[in-house]
Protein 1
Amino acid sequence: MQLKSLTLRGFKSFAERTILRFEPGVTAIVGPNGSGKSNISDAVMWVLGEQSARTLRSGSMEDVIFAGSAARPALGMAEVSLTLSNTDGTLPIEFSEVTITRRLYRSGESDYYINNSPCRLLDIQELLSDSGLGKGLYSIIGQGRLEEILSSKPEERRILLEEAA
Amino acid sequence: MQLKSLTLRGFKSFAERTILRFEPGVTAIVGPNGSGKSNISDAVMWVLGEQSARTLRSGSMEDVIFAGSAARPALGMAEVSLTLSNTDGTLPIEFSEVTITRRLYRSGESDYYINNSPCRLLDIQELLSDSGLGKGLYSIIGQGRLEEILSSKPEERRILLEEAA
Amino acid sequence: MNAKFVDTFELVNEGFQKVFESLFPGGQAELILSEPDDIANSGVDIIAQPGGKKLQRLSLLSGGEKSLVALAFSFAIYQIKPSPFYILDEVEAALDDINLQRFISLVHKIRRDSQILIVTHQRRTMEVADSLYGVSMQADGVSRLISQKFSEVTVGTA
Amino acid sequence: MNAKFVDTFELVNEGFQKVFESLFPGGQAELILSEPDDIANSGVDIIAQPGGKKLQRLSLLSGGEKSLVALAFSFAIYQIKPSPFYILDEVEAALDDINLQRFISLVHKIRRDSQILIVTHQRRTMEVADSLYGVSMQADGVSRLISQKFSEVTVGTA
Ligand SMILES: Nc1ncnc2c1ncn2[C@@H]1O[C@H](COP(=O)(O)OP(=O)(O)OP(=O)(O)O)[C@@H](O)[C@H]1O
Ligand SMILES: Nc1ncnc2c1ncn2[C@@H]1O[C@H](COP(=O)(O)OP(=O)(O)OP(=O)(O)O)[C@@H](O)[C@H]1O
Ligand SMILES: [Mg+2]
Ligand SMILES: [Mg+2]
């Protein structure tokens, strides 16, 4: 399974529709402080089902919707889509390419899609459950969060191991 | 008031008597990971009266005594001395140069000295209380601790302001 | 199931020791059960001793040493259960030049089988990348991207 | 005493806004009382808006932005009540090149009246120093010092 692309629209500082296409190997994300690099990482966590606003540095989930700037008004919706190639059949679904989409409106309503078919968050979680992209997302180390592995409780480290089992 | 010198002996990784002499202006402390740079900062906090082992990254105060290495046995005592010039009379004491010394033995016993006269920790705290070097030590920002100002409670920030009053 | 946890624990422990030794030449480390008499509920503790030093609690380690221990633990898990991709956000910030090089060697180990997104301000980390995305924000408060394959770009200012 | 706290609060607030603007061109910030109706017990909150952006909670700021806000707060206090010396341990680790330069300008402001010890891995921060102490640890696990005045040393590897 490979990442093909990530599309952000109205997610945090990405007010305009923005597409990252992924190559194999190592991709470096660079830029000045506050430009939006960590927001990209937040977008991936969010579209894969992250439910804790705090993990996304937010006070409430609504904080992930573009809040406006000095020059632009706030938007009413945030949307992130992640497209994965599934030619090796890692995901238990009959598509060689799978796009997961998550949308949040200011009303608090959420929409979820797998390949443009509406679904529930639970369907996305089940789809990903065996792929290494599911709950826990141990494969994403957020900024300033590396040391948490050392200061966390022994039980929390056990959970990390069990998810890798 | 100016820093003149800092002497470490048996404090953390500074097993051998080590003297830093201070120039006016900016002194950069450099070196590889784990070489002992932050331990120098810990030594200054400790000799000025820091009582929280946790602030010194330790589990108990005994952890600041050189614990030995693969090549050397542990020592039985840690000692740090800080010498300040007092020609401007900032410190309420009749010396133009003041040396504060703190010693800790593995037994848990502590000794304190002002200019080689035994005293109590309280005497050192009182001596420093108006100098900006006293409690709170807001003038020392430890590694990884800068962001605490933002995540701390509003009441804690008030205390920082009040110490600066 | 206890047996499964014990198997995973032993595999990750083995991997952790290997990665640790590559990051800390002459050093040693291991994972231990916090409650060996209660495997069903036991947590996992980390013991780490850099080369030449005495074994002490993790909190006494330096900033860079803590980063390396945490990276060794994470990469040990990655080797046991690879993920299709990893996102590492400024994880090398506390490392000196020599340890940065060791971190880069770790990245080389997992890049063959996985995609890695690394957010970084460090030139040497950028030089390891196959492709580069530049993120910028202008006065309108909106983030935008510039994509560049590494062969087309000179790494000027971060 | 309330009056004293209010005076200090207003002085530090004024200084904080000035330092913030030097670190965030076009931005604005202020300190506010968490409980304006209960000055005796009120805490102090920080409001910060980088240039061009909308005012939001501090947690949404980036790593580098958080460092700068914390530095602005600290330096505002330093200006109100200078200390004979400061120790700053890798406080600039999250800053990009441009913000590092702004941090260095802050250091220049307080160095005239105080001694500053800066622990750093960054070459540009070292270049600001009047003197340099190198710390090393050999295989015996003991830290040792080499002192060098800046004029005598070439900054090679960190
Ligand atoms: N909902 C939102 N609407 C608009 N802007 C937002 C929103 N959420 C966050 N931001 C902005 O995004 C910026 C942070 O972006 P991010 O954390 O990705 O920066 P970064 O590139 O990782 O920087 P650093 O190098 O300092 O870590 C902040 O300035 C914040 O104001
Ligand atoms: N009581 C002690 N006895 C012997 N060694 C100790 C003691 N306390 C701490 N150390 C050692 O000191 C080292 C940490 O030193 P320090 O934190 O000063 O490093 P540093 O130079 O700041 O590194 P970094 O650049 O990674 O922050 C650790 O390796 C630790 O083992
Ligand atoms: Mg960031
Ligand atoms: Mg350090």
Note: Chain A touches chain D through 19 residues (CB under 8 Å).
Protein 2
Amino acid sequence: VFLRRLELKGFKSFARPTQFEFDRGVTVIVGPNGSGKSNVADGLRWVLGEQNARNLRARRMEDIIFTGSSQRTPLGMAEASLDLDNSREELPLEFTDVTLTRRAYRSGESEYFINRGRTRWRDVAELLLKANVGQNGYTIIGQGVIENFINLRPEEKRLWLEEAA
Amino acid sequence: VFLRRLELKGFKSFARPTQFEFDRGVTVIVGPNGSGKSNVADGLRWVLGEQNARNLRARRMEDIIFTGSSQRTPLGMAEASLDLDNSREELPLEFTDVTLTRRAYRSGESEYFINRGRTRWRDVAELLLKANVGQNGYTIIGQGVIENFINLRPEEKRLWLEEAA
Amino acid sequence: IHHNFQTTFETVSHQFKSYFTHFFGGGTAKLVRIPPSNGNEMGVELVAQPPGKRLQNLSLLSGGERALTAVAFLFAILEANPSPFCVLDEVDASLDETNSIRFSQALAKLCQRTQFIVITHNRNTMQVANTIYGVSMGEDNVSRVLSLRLEGDSPSLLGNEVPPY
Amino acid sequence: IHHNFQTTFETVSHQFKSYFTHFFGGGTAKLVRIPPSNGNEMGVELVAQPPGKRLQNLSLLSGGERALTAVAFLFAILEANPSPFCVLDEVDASLDETNSIRFSQALAKLCQRTQFIVITHNRNTMQVANTIYGVSMGEDNVSRVLSLRLEGDSPSLLGNEVPPY
Ligand SMILES: Nc1ncnc2c1ncn2[C@@H]1O[C@H](COP(=O)(O)OP(=O)(O)OP(=O)(O)O)[C@@H](O)[C@H]1O
Ligand SMILES: Nc1ncnc2c1ncn2[C@@H]1O[C@H](COP(=O)(O)OP(=O)(O)OP(=O)(O)O)[C@@H](O)[C@H]1O
Ligand SMILES: [Mg+2]
Ligand SMILES: [Mg+2]
């Protein structure tokens, strides 16, 4: 699989629908402090099934929905959609184009979709685990993780190795 | 007081005697990764009385003595000397020029000097505490401290404030 | 002139607000006391609201914004209780161009009362130095000081040894 | 194609050595197993020796050297078990000019097998991108994507909105 396109709507600072088309090689994201770069990484982590708000730099899941600003009212829903190229059939689905979509509402409810068909979190997680897509700790390296890696205890360092086995 | 000059000998990567003359305003230290910049900050922390090896990025005090390389044999002693300008008499000594010197030997012994006169660690610590020189946590900000400051617990954040009172 | 804790708390809170609004071009910030609980002692928390945003938990700020907020707190303490000197080891590592200029401007002001020794890779920070030392690691794995720029010369006089930042 | 832990351990250890020696221009490195003790599970430790230095504990390495060592371990894992994609959020923040060039060269090689999404402030890393997105925060505190550079254009086409790195 490779990532084709990510769309964020109401996710963190991306109040307006915003698309990123990724290159098969290296896509670089630049910008000033606080502009939303790490929020893109959080969006990817979230659409791939992350359930722990702390891994999204939030205290609770509701914090990921656009909280408003002096010029805009808060939104009621956050959505992320990720288009994957499955032409090598790593994901055990009969589609070559797969779109994962995730939504969260202020009410606390969540919705998951595979190619617009409603599904459960468990199905998405199982699907991605089978294909070794995005479920291990070293797939998304957050800000500050590399600087602190050497301080981890030996059992923690082993985790990355185990996920690669 | 202000810092006039620091000399390091056998301290960490400074095997050869090396001097830094500090400006009254801003002195900047630049250089590639691993060249010894943070070792200069450690040298200052050490000559000002630091007793905890971990605050010098070392496992034990012996680690601060030049450990040798493929071209040089290890040294048996580390020394740091700091010249202070005491013309405003903040340090309760009758000198306007004060030199603090500290030595450590592989045997584990330490020596302290004030203006070449042998003294004890306790005397140096008391002297600096009275003059509010270098004894609080915010005087020397190590690499990575600022990035992690926000994650400290409220009781830890209070410490800097208490030292300023 | 040691004040009690309360006076220091109020002065630092006031200064924290002033540095924060200078760095972020607006917004507001203050210190709050956290009463002792569950066996923890009394604490202090920073509350900050960047311009145009709702009051939020500091954990939602970006990496650079968190560093800038911590520096605002540090500089507020140095205003409230000027320490004779202060050593900063790459505190500007996560700042973008605009913020590193604001940081270096604040440094140029504070250095009237506090002597600074600053380790940095950042060009803007180098600009405010009166003295620059270049450190490098020799073939023999011993640190050496390469050069010294006095006030007024351009960094280019340092020669090739200092990285072309 | 899931190997057992032992095969992965050996492959990653071998690759870790090769990335480490490439990044540091020599020296050696390997992984060692840490047997379970005091209730801790089995662990893995990185052992690294920069060129010309004695074998030392990683805690004596500098900030940039530690980051580079952690990246060598990460890249070794990606070699041993290529993940379809990998997101890196400012992993190059503490690297100097020489090391960031080595880092970006390694990235350019690895991206043949793994798709990368890289958040960075570093010019050298931008050079290896096929696609660059500039993100900025609007007056209304909403993130927006400013521009897209396709392969071959120079960054200057991005206009004023992207910081002048
Ligand atoms: N739910 C939300 N609603 C609105 N804004 C949010 C939300 N969550 C986070 N933000 C904003 O996003 C900004 C942080 O963005 P992010 O961490 O992506 O910055 P960055 O571009 O990575 O910056 P840096 O270079 O400093 O790391 C913060 O200023 C924060 O206020
Ligand atoms: N006792 C010692 N003897 C010899 N070398 C030592 C000793 N202690 C530390 N070193 C060396 O000093 C180097 C680290 O220096 P330092 O941390 O000052 O680098 P730095 O210039 O701050 O780099 P960075 O920009 O990456 O932070 C390491 O490579 C380490 O091997
Ligand atoms: Mg970020
Ligand atoms: Mg350093």
Note: Chain C touches chain D through 16 residues (CB under 8 Å).
